[in-house]
Amino acid sequence: MKSGSDRIVVVGNGMAGSRFVTEMRARDRAVPLTVFGAEPQQPYNRVLLSNVLAGAARPDQIGLVDPAWYDRHDVDARLGVEVVKIDRDQRLVYAADGSVTEYGTLVVATGSVALVPPIPGTEGGLPAGALAFRTLEDCHRILELADRAERAVVVGGGLLGIEAARGLAGRGLDVTVLHLAGHLMERQLDQGAGRVLARTLARLGIRTRVEANVSALRTGTGPDGERRAVGVELADGEFLPGDLVIMACGVRPDVRLAREAGLEVDRGIVVDEMLRSVTDPSVRAIGECSQYGGMVYGLVAPAWEQATILADLLAGTDAAARFTGARQITRLKAASVDLAAMGETHHTDDDPEVEVVQFADPARGTYKKVVIKDDRLIGAILLGETSTAGTLTQLYDRESPLPSDRLSLLFPGINGAAVSDSPVRMPDAATVCHCNNVSKGQIRACWERGARTADDVARQTRASTGCGSCRDAVEGIVAWLDEQESAPTG
């Protein structure tokens, strides 16, 4: 093999790739750095696409890196340029624009692609009126169609499908969600929580159908002669009409380039704890396309943690940095839908090895459950009322001993129990933003340096720029600090 250059080439400029580039430049201003992004616009927060769909945010408000930043930091950014081939023998990257770029280290951050089931009607690609929901371009196309549509069918009741349904219902469409499993978001929620979520969605005007096996996408001919989706057929023969059909059937790691380059691929690119491909140590992989310890992490916090660790390793700022796995915590915070789920949520009282404490008030859209084993929290669901989410997340992350009064885990302030989400009682070491690992102490320090709004704190610490669910907590801490400053001292 050639010795190669010392250039770092990043393939993929999404949430993992763009974070790595910014973290790398924060540590090393001199190393040659090139990033390829197949999408033409600046990298954006994919988690917040549903807010754009709902009209709660503009596309420019979810950007992660301003294009001008690349020039200021001497980053060779190839936006809108897709990589078509990796030659590991020569350490070269071939792009669709005909360019060939040499690398010393290659970082693959190609993310995931939407899954479209191979059912009749999807042959040769989705017809007009049917779209996946994965990219900002998908979002733009959905919005264009939504302006002329009345009825929407969302195929898939996982996190992405729920977010799409919520956004479309917020725009006044008649929305039905079809889900193959027995309850919504079955990976994160148990059956009871799934039922409560369905009732909450019903109050928003969203119908849900579970155990609904979509067997075909029915198409017709539009006024302009093009093939167009007109609804879906179920396995029992029922037809559900829809002017707009959203395929939210999940994602799969985008590993085509890696597989063609001869890297070991299981579900994702198999890496070690230094995020090196087990096939070729000059190739690293982060984000949704990577697989460590048999796990592919599909959430933003692990991807950003990997980006930070890799930047430490390649810049030499922390040679001991290692990725040893991450705990996955799902957050969904939208109008009338507030959810936190973590760990092993499907245990029941019938399991003699675990302790389950739960509360349900379906009429008010509330469901709470904690799963305990050996006096440690191994799983939790909070739906509708999530005031103890910060406490549970810390206990889950740190595997800390639990209070003897289990109800305090579900209801804040019971029997004088401390509420870590309260700025007054929250210790400085408590993590407020789990996507970016920002503590209350860091927010306090930021405030003491002059940050007086949540937006100021976000710019300086990145708190609340991930899933956005900690925004209220950041605003609360800033407001509390402001109050402390203005309070009389005598």
Helix-strand blueprint:
Layout: E1 8-11, H1 15-27, E2 33-37, H2 49-54, H3 67-72, E3 76-79, E4 83-87, E5 92-95, E6 100-102, E7 105-108, E8 112-114, E9 130-132, H4 136-146, E10 151-155, H5 159-170, E11 174-179, H6 191-203, E12 206-210, E13 214-221, E14 227-234, E15 239-241, E16 244-247, E17 251-253, H7 256-260, E18 269-270, E19 283-285, E20 290-291, H8 300-315, E21 329-334, E22 337-343, E23 355-361, E24 366-373, E25 376-383, H9 389-398, E26 431-433, E27 438-439, H10 440-448, H11 454-461, H12 471-486
Parallel strand pairs: 1-2, 1-7, 2-3, 7-19, 9-16, 10-11, 10-16, 11-12, 18-20
Antiparallel strand pairs: 4-5, 5-6, 8-17, 13-14, 14-15, 21-22, 22-25, 23-24, 24-25, 26-27
Helix pairs in contact: 1-8, 10-12
Report on this structure.
This protein has 490 residues and is of the alpha/beta class. The protein has 4 domains: 8-112 and 252-315, FAD/NAD(P)-binding domain; 130-249, FAD/NAD(P)-binding domain (3-Layer(bba) Sandwich); 344-420, Enolase-like, domain 1 (2-Layer Sandwich); 422-490, BFD-like [2Fe-2S]-binding domain (Arc Repressor Mutant, subunit A). It is 26% helix and 26% strand. It is built from 12 helices and 27 strands. It has helices spanning 15-27, 49-54, 67-72, 136-146, 159-170, 191-203, 256-260, 300-315, 389-398, 440-448, 454-461, 471-486; strands at 8-11, 33-37, 76-79, 83-87, 92-95, 100-102, 105-108, 112-114, 130-132, 151-155, 174-179, 206-210, 214-221, 227-234, 239-241, 244-247, 251-253, 269-270, 283-285, 290-291, 329-334, 337-343, 355-361, 366-373, 376-383, 431-433, 438-439. The strands form 8 sheets. A 5-stranded parallel β-sheet has the order 3-2-1-7-19. A 5-stranded parallel β-sheet has the order 9-16-10-11-12. Strands 21-22-25-24-23 form a 5-stranded antiparallel β-sheet. Strand 23 and strand 24 form a beta hairpin. Helix 1 runs parallel beside helix 8 (300-315) and helix 10 packs across helix 12 (471-486). The protein is globular and about 60 Å long. The relative contact order is 0.10. Mean pLDDT is 91; it is low at 416-420.
